Amino acid sequence: MKGCQLVSISFFVLLFSVAARPTDNDCVCTLYVKTGWMMKAGTDSRISVVLGDRSGGHGRGSCIGSPCRLNLTSDGSGWHHGWYCDYIEITSTGPQQPCAQTVFYVDQWLAADIPPFQLTAFRDGCYMRDEPRKHGRNVPLIVGNPESPA
Questions:
Q1: pLDDT tens digits, one per residue of 42-98
Q2: Residue with the larger pLDDT of the pair 29 and 33
Q3: What percent of the chain has pLDDT over 70?
Q4: Helix H or strand E segment including 113
Q5: Is residue 91 a contact partner of residue 67, using CB atoms and an 8 Å limit?
Q6: Strand 28-35 and strand 83-94: pairing?
Q7: What is the maximum alpha-carbon separation in the chain?
Q8: Which of 16, 22, 47, 58 could form a disulfide with 52 if both were Cys (CB 3.0 to 4.6 A apart)?
Q9: Cβ(66)–Cβ(92) under 8 Å?
Q10: So which residues are the signal peptide here (predicted)?
Q11: Is the Cβ–Cβ distance between 100 and 67 less than 8 Å?
Q12: Which domains does the chain have, with CATH numbers?
């Protein structure tokens, strides 16, 4: 079941990137979405993702800077409306821009009937851009707590 969810999300991202047909000035963002491992963690709701950069740029259209802000929203529809998002890994690139990678650890249910009883998760790592990175220069920006106990 988990494999089907990952395949369907990957297919949707592939379909979206083919349908968008980027022009020479557009960026390309690839999203890898990891659903949680627990029972009923998958969803059939509509999920939307809005990315933002440090300058406040967001949305669709021309390139934004390195993504450091994430707004993840479920519309709460469907028979399996609850969704547990483990993390989202984003790789973006565009003309005259270096490749950037960000991992947003969401670790949260997007559901009205499971704590924290919210259909939206917001993660902001833009303030972290000026801090020195612990693992070197060419590592992804990590937003959230990747060292949570297993």
A1: 888 899 999 888 877 665 556 777 788 899 999 989 898 889 999 999 988 888 777
A2: 33
A3: 66
A4: none
A5: no
A6: antiparallel
A7: 45
A8: 58
A9: yes
A10: 1-20
A11: yes
A12: 2-143 (2.60.60.20)
